[in-house]
Design a protein that fits this description.
globular, Rossmann fold, 15 helices, alpha/beta, six-stranded parallel β-sheet
């Protein structure tokens, strides 16, 4: 089998979906599946410096880059070049696996695959959650009625990463078969000096707990709520330092910095900007608490990376893997309100023992459920079933994914 994954962008600035598709394809190739990616050279407000119109190795996987139309319309990312390429090359593949809804490259790939009789899988990345559908509601309703509902209804399968995401698909009125497979995470190399080094770099006291927000700076992630919660704790004389590791649109970043200053937290807060590689591992392993109070997350790859780094997490119930985290006692799940969030942070600041217990449970959950190797094997069995016209394998969300469910 030869499989093609299509996504609007693989640039790191686009966040979790781009990161996840690279990990997924790398794991699939290690399991013996011939997989490639087709995408644009989008890099947010800039362009990736990559070869175009040829298959090139990018972060260890084969990727076809086609030029986007500039400037991009946020995540829509129109590309006439990609359209032509997909029309010519989709017949070279047995299955197309798209990532994203309401974005031109993925929608176009599904439409062309359908016209040319090639089965395709859609990964919705949480775009059918009630909160997501409420954003730009009218545009999404028009787009759905014209194109996206048919793309979803005629797909061979819809790839969901949580039971909540699969429920959102059904609530949207789509009866296409769903597969529920989580995303994976690579086990980080242990960095024993991380806490000491992180504090040295940012001039933070050795006794001060570090609270980490590692994600795109976007109002969906609610960094403003985190600032408000910490402002409340600062009035109670609790010791902490907040690190914002991520980037966003300049107007919103400036808004957050102004909010930090007006809250009297400037001396307790560091904005690192976008980080990756060793710098990212440094903040993950050097911090004491991870907080992501999002309105909505279909998965939240940063949360899983934090747990893999044995960092206790505080998340909101809008994160769709929250039930698994709560059941495993691998983190604190709260409602996205000021008092509940500030109380949870205060609880972990006051109890190193609880932080240790949560981190140990988190590591166990990662080992049992979020292994890229096993997820790739299960996904490969889905491809085989679709290619052979067989019924899709059934997956139980409670399964330990370190053990392949099919052979």
């Amino acid at each position: 089998m030869k499989i093609l994954h299509v996504i609007p962008s693989v640039a790191s600035v686009r966040g979790g979906p781009s990161h996840a598709v690279l990990g997924m394809v790398k794991a699939l190739r290690k399991s013996g599946i011939d997989v490639e990616i087709a995408t644009t050279n989008d890099n947010g407000s800039n362009l990736l410096n990559v070869p175009l119109y040829q298959c090139t190795e990018y972060q260890g996987v084969p990727v076809w880059f086609l030029p986007r139309f500039s400037p991009p319309l946020k995540e829509f990312i129109f590309s006439t070049a990609l359209t032509r390429w997909l029309w010519q090359h989709i017949p070279d593949y047995q299955i197309i696996h798209t990532h994203y809804l309401f974005s031109y490259p993925s929608t176009c790939a599904g439409l062309i695959a359908r016209r040319q009789g090639i089965p395709y899988i859609v990964r919705t990345i949480g775009q059918l959650a009630p909160w997501a559908l409420a954003q730009s509601r009218l545009k999404k309703q028009v787009y759905t009625s014209l194109i996206e509902r048919r793309n979803l209804s005629r797909a061979a399968a819809i790839h969901c990463t949580s039971a909540g995401e699969a429920e959102d698909v059904r609530n949207f009125g789509i009866q296409t078969p769903t597969i529920t497979l989580p995303l994976g995470v690579n086990q980080p190399d242990h960095f024993p000096e991380a806490k000491q080094k992180l504090r040295y770099i940012h001039n933070i006291s050795a006794q001060t707990p570090i609270i980490l927000f590692l994600s795109r700076l976007h109002y969906k992630k609610r960094p403003d709520l985190l600032i408000q919660a910490l402002n409340k704790l600062a009035t109670q004389n609790l010791d902490f330092h907040l690190i914002f590791a991520g980037s966003g649109e300049s107007d919103y970043e400036n808004h957050l910095k102004n909010l930090v200053a007006s809250s009297g937290l400037a001396s307790r807060t560091t904005f690192t900007g976008f980080i990756t590689g060793k710098d990212k591992e440094l903040v993950l392993q050097g911090s004491d608490i991870f907080v992501l109070p999002s309105f909505s997350e279909n998965f939240g790859i940063a949360i899983v990376e934090a747990m893999a780094a044995r960092l206790p997490v505080i998340i909101t119930s809008g994160v769709q893997i929250a039930p698994e985290i709560a059941q495993a006692k691998a983190g604190l799940v709260v409602e996205g309100e000021l008092d509940t969030l500030s109380n949870a942070i205060a609880q972990l600041l006051a109890s190193p023992r609880l932080r240790q217990q949560l981190s140990e449970n988190a590591k166990e959950l990662i080992n049992h459920k979020y292994s890229w190797n096993a997820i790739a094997q299960n996904l490969a069995s889905v491809y085989a079933a679709i290619n052979e016209g067989k019924k899709l394998p059934e997956y139980n969300p409670e399964i330990d994914y370190t053990i392949p469910t099919t052979r």
